[in-house]
Design a protein that fits this description.
By secondary structure, the chain is an alpha+beta fold. It has a single domain (about 1-120), classed as Roll (Nuclear Transport Factor 2, Chain: A), CATH 3.10.450. The chain has helices at about 1-20, 20-30, 45-55; strands at about 30-35, 40-45, 55-70, 75-90, 95-110, 110-120. The radius of gyration is 14 Å and the shape is globular.
Length: about 120
């Protein structure tokens, strides 16, 4: 049951992300949110949202595949791993990104929030 809820939250997050609905994206994030990349970029909630709002990326296509969700023994954390593919433009440049991502969701006051997000580019 919770796996379906987590999958729906993840889908809704990416729908808001791809539509650049930044206020909605921010609502998915825990106040303790942290974002990490394999390039050692680290953001907290505030710096992540500032970066996203200033980015000129325009998405054309998005895919999420190979989704696996596991619950913690305490049922207040969920771990999702998957691969993503983004196609779009930045300025005049067409781009395509593939990544493996891990998200940790935390149950906060009855709602699943994103606590931790890690991206490793496959390109």
């Amino acid at each position: 049951m919770e796996n379906a809820v987590i999958e729906k939250r993840l889908t809704n997050y990416y729908d808001a992300f791809n539509a650049k609905k930044w206020n909605d994206v921010e609502e998915f994030l825990s106040d303790d949110f942290s974002y990490f990349t394999d390039n050692c970029t680290v953001h907290n909630k505030s710096s992540f949202m500032s970066f996203m709002r200033s980015d000129d990326w325009q998405g054309i296509d998005f895919r999420l595949e190979e989704l696996e969700i596991k619950m913690s023994a305490s049922n207040d954390l969920a771990f999702a791993t998957y691969s993503t593919q983004f196609e779009g433009t930045s300025g005049e440049t067409k781009m395509k990104f593939q990544a493996i991502e891990t998200i940790v969701f935390k149950l906060e006051e009855g709602e699943w929030k994103i606590l931790h997000f890690h991206t490793s580019n496959k390109n």
